[in-house]
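Re: beginner question about structure tokens

> Can someone show what the tokenized structure looks like for a real chain? I only ever see the sequence side.

Sure, here's an example I had lying around. Input first:
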Amino acid sequence: MNQTTLDTPPDRSPAMAGPEDDRPAARGWFATVRRERPGLIEVAIFALALLVYQGSRVLVMGQPSLAFENAAHIISWERSSGLFVESSVQEWMLNHVQLTEMLNYFYMSAHWIVTILFFVWLFHRHRRVYPYVRNAFLFANGIALIVYAVFPVAPPRLMGGHQFVDTLSSISDIDLQGGMFAGLFNPHAAVPSMHFGYAFMIAMVMPVLVRSWPLRLVALAYPAVVLLTIVGTANHYITDALAGGVVIATGFFTIFLWMMARGRLSEPSSDPDAARRLAR
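And the corresponding structure tokens:
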């Protein structure tokens, strides 16, 4: 028999090709899309993360009795430490009904709109620091889901014995417990407040990257407006906001260490120290 025939592997027809033959093509397609349409990949990442986050947030709803018990402990702790100002803030808000109505809609919309616009801006204007912020953001949301599962807390608006008013319902006729919003909100996920956490993230990142002082001041003021909103509408306690800030800071610090360990921390070319300043 001809030696050449023995040494030459038989031709593989398309019908004989196994699943492994499609892997290089699939990887090549993904690499092409990632190179030529990076924005599309990021949209897919955030869409998937949103589905997981919202779905998991509903699935980890705690027992109502435990959520109310934890909320009572928070109120007691805030009273003893002098942090319990929620009633005073809401009393002031209820004396300014038009402002309260504006902040009700701000609570429902800004959390999403401002955060999306922030990431779009970051992706287009500061591409090198974008992965760091995105990964820290996603990691922090993962931490938040764990806290929701192990430490459910009822928001102030559900604590009937403490004279809190659900301004969303009473003033703007927005019902978070029923209708179109029922499946989007976990009523026992007050801690941590990611409304405040996202705002805190923007206040950490934007002033480092932008050169305009007015924009820096707007970014720094944003968490204060969010804090007034979440407390004044009786959706969160002061403790919730503190926890949200800690969760975001933990996400940034953890991803900073991870990227440093892998040698993948890239700084924007316009400011070589920006990424490291973000982690401080």
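Each token stands for a local structural state, so reading them left to right follows the chain. The first helix runs from residue 3 to 7.
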